[in-house]
């Protein structure tokens, strides 16, 4: 019985090693097979269809306004050691107050953009997922550098942000493996506290760091392969995102 148990351990170890090898084979950004899979899964479809569309189809075919793509971008940086996609967004540069101040239509468009984003993030797990090693979660690096007090001090902006968080709380909680939040200043700390009110059950998956790179770069390197990270987040100088949305 002991020999059987040892054999099972060996088999599992080999399977995990093979999976990690497979994941690493996709880390090369010039790999055409990977790029094809990424864009096939994440790109929106442009096919015309006159039949009634589901909400998912509507989101897939919806062309996001250029100003949203330009001012609120995010990108697929690579994959972690278990094949989970790593998404990076520089939230500190997002001017959510402008969205709110521009009125109802602006807020509705941004909400739809967030809904489309949530769908893209969910779909990204399919890229390296296999029946033997399903991928149902993603990892995130959120950069709060340059977040200013005006974003937090405006009640309407805060209310709108919390409303969005509540709408997509299930997606965030269910689809998140790890979140590393960096460059958190005093203003960003307020934002994190507000988010905790809505997403409390996922906060054990979140690491929050200040602006000292010496503290959070080692954590990013521990969690993620260096070839999956940009240089500014402790990765390689030649790194290029696999998919940029914006």
Sequence-ordered SSE layout with sheet pairings:
Layout: H1 2-25, H2 32-42, H3 55-61, H4 66-71, E1 74-79, E2 85-89, H5 96-101, H6 104-124, E3 138-143, H7 149-153, H8 155-167, H9 169-174, E4 176-182, H10 186-199, E5 206-208, H11 213-223, E6 243-245
Parallel strand pairs: 2-3, 3-4, 4-5
Antiparallel strand pairs: 1-2, 1-6
Helix pairs in contact: 8-10
Organism: Allacma fusca
Protein name: CRAL-TRIO domain-containing protein
Domain CRAL-TRIO: 64-241
Compact description:
The protein is α/β, with parallel strands linked by helices. Helix content is 50%, strand content 12%.
Report on this model:
- It comes from Allacma fusca.
- One of its GO terms (cellular component) is cytoplasm.
- Pfam families: CRAL_TRIO.
- The protein has helices at 2-25, 32-42, 55-61, 66-71, 96-101, 104-124, 149-153, 155-167, 169-174, 186-199, 213-223, and strands at residues 74-79, 85-89, 138-143, 176-182, 206-208, 243-245.
- The N and C termini lie far apart (57 Å).
- It is built from eleven helices and six strands.
- The radius of gyration is 20 Å and the shape is globular.
How much of the polypeptide forms β-strand, as a percent range? Answer: 5-15%
Q: Roughly what percent helix?
A: 40-55%
CATH architecture: 3-Layer(aba) Sandwich
CATH class categorisation: Alpha Beta
Please summarize the sheet with the most strands.
6 strands, mixed
CATH superfamily grouping: CRAL-TRIO lipid binding domain
- Summed over residues and divided by their number, the pLDDT gives a mean of 82
First-last Cα distance: 57 Å
Helices and strands: which structural class? alpha/beta
Task: Pick out the low-confidence regions.
Answer: 2-27, 45-50
Strand order in the sheet with the most strands = 5-4-3-2-1-6
Radius of gyration: 20 Å
GO cellular component, one term: cytoplasm
Pfam families: CRAL_TRIO
Organism: Allacma fusca
InterPro entries: CRAL-TRIO_dom, SEC14/CRAL-TRIO_domain
């Amino acid at each position: 019985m002991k020999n059987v148990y040892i054999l099972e351990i060996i088999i599992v170890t080999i399977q995990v090693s093979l999976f990690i090898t497979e994941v690493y084979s996709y880390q090369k950004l010039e790999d055409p097979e990977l790029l094809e899979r990424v864009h096939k899964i994440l790109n929106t479809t442009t096919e015309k269809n006159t039949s009634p569309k589901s909400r998912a189809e509507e989101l897939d075919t919806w062309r996001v306004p250029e100003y949203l793509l330009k001012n609120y971008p995010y990108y697929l940086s690579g994959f972690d050691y278990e094949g989970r996609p790593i998404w990076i967004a520089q939230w500190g540069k997002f001017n959510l107050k402008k969205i709110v101040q521009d009125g109802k239509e602006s807020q509705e468009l941004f909400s739809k953009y967030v809904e489309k984003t949530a769908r893209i993030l969910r779909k990204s797990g399919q890229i390296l997922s296999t029946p033997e090693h399903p991928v149902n979660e993603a990892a995130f690096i959120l950069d709060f550098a340059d977040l200013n007090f005006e974003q937090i001090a405006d009640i309407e902006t805060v209310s709108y942000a919390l409303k969005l968080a509540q709408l997509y709380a299930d997606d965030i909680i269910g689809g998140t493996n790890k979140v590393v939040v960096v460059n958190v200043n005093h203003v960003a700390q307020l934002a994190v506290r507000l988010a905790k009110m809505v997403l409390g059950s996922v906060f054990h998956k979140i690491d929050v760091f200040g602006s000292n790179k010496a503290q959070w770069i080692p954590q990013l390197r521990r969690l993620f392969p260096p070839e999956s990270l940009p240089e500014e987040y402790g990765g390689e100088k030649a790194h290029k995102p696999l998919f940029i949305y914006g």
